Structure formats: structure tokens, C-alpha cells
Amino acid sequence: LAGGIILGVALWLRHDSQTTNILYLQLGDKQAPNTFYVGIYILIAVGAVMMFVGFLGCYGAIQESQCLLGTFFTCLVILFACEVAAGIWGFVNKDQIAKDVKQFYDQAFQQALMAEPEMNNGKAVVKTFHETLDCCGPDNAIGVITPLWREDLCPKKDSTLKTFIETSNCHKKIDELFSGKLYLIGIAAIVVAVIMIFEMILSMVLCCGIRNSSVY
């Protein structure tokens, strides 16, 4: 059940409309950074393997097989080690993910402001960011005044003044998007780790109980 829940959360994060709209973009020959998906794929793999390993543990308990329970315990130890490694990697790269996406957005924004926008797809990339995140412009002076003179790049409001007042800069929105998603991934990883620890303890207790009962 825990494996199924983790797999479901990971698949939802993988196919979330906001992240897929942004991370599938391409600016010329450059693809949007997909570091975020590395953590998602790790969660998907952990969830799927947990479901299989859970079945192995249940079957081993029903059959009272020390071999299957020992294999179950070994698989859990390996999974736990992989999750700790993935958690360390995620903690180290948590700020880098948003930073890479903001740099990609800034490059597209600069191209969208060029005199010959038909020579690149920067305008289309920027409009996708703006419409998906309901923002306009980067976190600088150009971004602040962009709604006033580039209405073709920003989400349409009832008036230009309303657009200027209500629309946030995209750097802030990108930070909010990925910090929220990474927070959810972190919670899921902690829940899985706690469940794994209990599973390892209980499987060893059961395995020792079976071994001791076979003596008599």
C-alpha cells in the first residue's frame, strides 16, 4: 500500500500540468532543465519496487519462509540506502533546480525582446511561462515595466494598470512552484523511510520467531 501511494504521488508530480508545460519547452536547440524529473523517477522506481518487495514480504510471512523474509529484509536495506542517497542528492540540488529554470526563462525573455522575434521561439517560450504561472517578466527593472509596454507577452487582464499591479515576476513564481513540489517529495520520502524502518524491524522479529519455533 505504501509503495502504491508513493507511486501515485510520483506519477501525479510527473504529469502535473504546470511542470510539464514548462519543462518540455525548447529554446532553439536548448531543452529546458529536467533535473527535477530525476527525483521524480527515483520516487517512481522506489514505489514500484516497494510494491513488489511488499508482496514478497507478505508471501514470505504467510509461508513462514526465513529465506523470503531474509530477502525481503535485504531488499529493504538496499531501498533504504538508495532513498538516503537520493535525499542527500535532492537536498544538495534543491536550489539548483529553480536556478536552472530561471536562467532558461531569462534567456528566452531576452530573445523575446529582440528586434527579430521571428528568428527564434523565445516569445512562445516566454508566453508559456507567463500563462502557466500567471506571471510577467524576470526579477529586475525590465521585468517590472514589461506589463506596461509588452502586452503581447503577458497574461491579459481587464486593463494595463491592473496587469501591472496584479502580475508577479516569474522568478518568484518559479521558486514557489518548485519549492512546493520539493516539499511534497520530501514528506513522501520521510514517510517511506519510517515505514521501511518498521518493516525491517518486524521482518527480523518474525524471521527470528520462525527460526526459534522450528527448534521446538
From TrEMBL:
The keyword Cell division does not apply. InterPro entries: Tetraspanin/Peripherin, Tetraspanin_animals, Tetraspanin_CS, Tetraspanin_EC2_sf. SUPFAM superfamilies: Tetraspanin (SSF48652). The keyword Membrane applies. GO terms for molecular function: lipid binding. Keywords: Adaptive immunity, Cell membrane, Disulfide bond, Immunity, Lipid-binding, Membrane, Transmembrane, Transmembrane helix. The chain crosses the membrane at residues 36-62, 68-92, 182-206. GO terms for biological process: adaptive immune response; regulation of cell population proliferation. It is found in: Basolateral cell membrane; Membrane. It is a multi-pass membrane protein. PROSITE patterns: TM4_1. One of its GO terms (cellular component) is basolateral plasma membrane. Gene3D superfamilies: Tetraspanin (1.10.1450.10). Disulfide bonds join 135-170, 136-154. Belongs to the tetraspanin (TM4SF) family. PANTHER family: CD81 ANTIGEN (PTHR19282:SF214), TETRASPANIN (PTHR19282). This is Tetraspanin. It comes from Psophia crepitans.
